[in-house]
């Protein structure tokens, strides 16, 4: 379990990421699921977001994946949401679709119940795709939906900030 309280606030993480992206003249696109757009909203809340934020999608269902990301049955063969391979694929896909430097993805079970795939509430897979793709799994062990959504967004931005600073990949 990851300590939710140990992560900086969402707005602070977004500001850190935004300043690093601006300084590097790099851009980002985001594919979210159970965070419901919180990552995109946090990045867009930083003044000057048009310098680094290219777009994103809340891919909350298979229908949304098809409509917003052009996902086909062939793309999903051997994959399911809420896994690292899926998050890695979606991070790369959103990066490429927007011609961004970076692509971010989170896919999880916000709660209060688990997912149809059997993942417990509070389980999330996150990925950052740049020249290399990094991913990890995290969990809160909680069933509170709003807490989990916030955690998912913060966990993804914390990983991204770490990678932008040149920190060790998970």
Tell me what you see in this structure:
- The chain is of the alpha/beta class and 170 residues long.
- It has one domain (4-164): Maf protein.
- The chain has 6 helices and 5 strands; from the N terminus they run H-E-H-E-H-H-H-E-E-E-H.
- Helix 1 packs parallel to helix 6.
- The longest helix has 20 residues, at 145-164.
Outline the secondary-structure elements.
Layout: H1 10-24, E1 28-32, H2 38-44, E2 53-58, H3 62-69, H4 73-76, H5 84-98, E3 102-109, E4 123-129, E5 133-139, H6 145-164
Parallel strand pairs: 1-2, 1-3
Antiparallel strand pairs: 3-4, 4-5
Helix pairs in contact: 1-6
What is the count of distinct domains? Answer: 1
Number of helices: 6
Strand residues, percent: 15-25%
Look at the structure and name the CATH superfamily: CinA-like
How many β-strand stretches?
A: 5
Main pleated sheet: 5 strands, mixed
- Show unreliable segments: none
CATH topology: Maf protein
Oligomeric assembly: single chain
Question: Quick one: overall form?
Answer: globular
Q: Give the C-level CATH assignment.
A: Alpha Beta
**Mean pLDDT rating:** 94
Assign a percent range to the helix content.
40-55%
CA radius of gyration: 15 Å
Classify the secondary structure makeup into a structural class.
alpha/beta
Q: Could you give the order of strands across the largest sheet?
A: 2-1-3-4-5
Taken in chain order, the helices and strands follow as: HEHEHHHEEEH
Cα(first) to Cα(last) distance is 15 Å
**CATH arch. level architecture:** Alpha-Beta Complex
Gist of the model:
By secondary structure, this protein is an alpha/beta fold.
